[in-house]
Write a sequence for this structure.
């Protein structure tokens, strides 16, 4: 376990991880392979039952609806939803079980981390960042919190949603509008920022509608970044001090490594929150339908975690000056 990870090359750190995989992770993954096969057999048994009983229930439901001359699709939607939950149950149980076994060991290669499944960053912190539109639901997947290179860091997959009422064929139901889906990185530093600085994605002519309340537009000297980010701040001088060319370049590098659709950030109090929107499921060290001993997923998870942790070195956030 590396409580302090010196800034070394990707190749050198990957070599260390390969050795760590053989001694720490491979035995756990091999042990969980037997468990995966049991859940896989259970899934296919449930699938077989569903292929028999689902069509029967749908046909019976349609016949009853025809008898009463009903066009309500609610019962069919309900039956379909129940069968989906029925089939997903072994996948979810296996995923939860194996992640609690594997992910703490995986993350502890990088530093001192605690792992939780389906935990989220405090919603109030997300709201105060002014990076997201109004949301009511905060769902989590993988969640890591710990110390890396002397900086407290939280890495969390987040899905922010807002319920909306919708109607289809005169049937009302609640739809969840996606506000954000991706990875949030929260870094807590040993100093407070004087004001609030926010970096949002450039939206062209629509930028005039995006200025967060209480903040002012900050113009950057580098025209390249003006095409990518719109910067708003309470303190213009501090914002320009924080938003150096190196900072922007390193954020863009992080975006590329995460296959992110866009990246936004917020400096507030003693926290830097980076939000990377991506449809990619992050930190997946194993698969339900493939062998746990397939290295592809865990190597990809290593690259993703490495990209997050390296931002501490790249930005040197634990040093007061020289960002």
């Amino acid at each position: 376990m590396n409580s302090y990870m010196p800034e070394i090359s990707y190749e050198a750190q990957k070599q260390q991880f390969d050795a760590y995989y053989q001694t720490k992770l491979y035995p756990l993954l091999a042990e969980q392979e037997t468990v995966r096969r049991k859940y896989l057999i259970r899934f296919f048994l449930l699938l077989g039952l569903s292929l028999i009983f689902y069509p029967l229930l749908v046909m019976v439901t349609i016949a009853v609806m025809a008898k009463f001359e009903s066009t309500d699709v609610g019962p069919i939607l309900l039956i379909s939803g129940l069968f989906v939950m029925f089939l997903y149950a072994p996948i979810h149980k296996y995923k939860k079980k194996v992640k609690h076994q594997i992910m703490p060991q995986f993350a502890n290669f990088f530093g001192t981390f605690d792992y939780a499944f389906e935990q989220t960053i405090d919603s109030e912190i997300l709201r105060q960042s002014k990076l997201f539109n109004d949301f009511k639901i905060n769902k989590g997947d993988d969640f890591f919190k710990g110390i890396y290179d002397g900086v407290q860091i939280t890495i969390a997959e987040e899905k922010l949603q807002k319920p909306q009422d919708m109607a289809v064929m005169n049937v009302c139901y609640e739809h969840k509008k996606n506000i954000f889906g991706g990875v949030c990185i929260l870094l807590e530093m040993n100093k407070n920022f004087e004001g609030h600085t926010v970096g949002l994605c450039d939206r062209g002519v629509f930028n005039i509608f995006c200025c967060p309340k209480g903040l002012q537009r900050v113009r950057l000297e580098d025209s390249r970044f003006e095409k990518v980010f719109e910067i708003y701040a309470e303190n213009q001088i501090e914002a320009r001090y924080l938003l150096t060319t190196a900072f922007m370049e390193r954020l863009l590098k992080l975006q590329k490594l995460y296959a992110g659709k866009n990246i936004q950030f917020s400096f507030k109090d003693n926290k830097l929150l980076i939000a990377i929107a991506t449809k990619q499921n992050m930190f997946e060290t194993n698969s339900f339908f493939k062998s746990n001993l397939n290295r592809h997923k865990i190597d990809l998870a290593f690259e993703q975690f490495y990209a997050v942790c390296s931002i501490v070195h790249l930005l040197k956030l634990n040093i007061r000056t020289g960002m």
Observations:
- The helical segments are 10-67, 74-107, 123-128, 223-226, 236-242, 245-257, 295-315.
- The first strand starts at residue 112 and ends at 117.
- Residues 1-6, 318-323 have pLDDT under 50 and may be disordered.
- The chain has seven helices and nine strands.
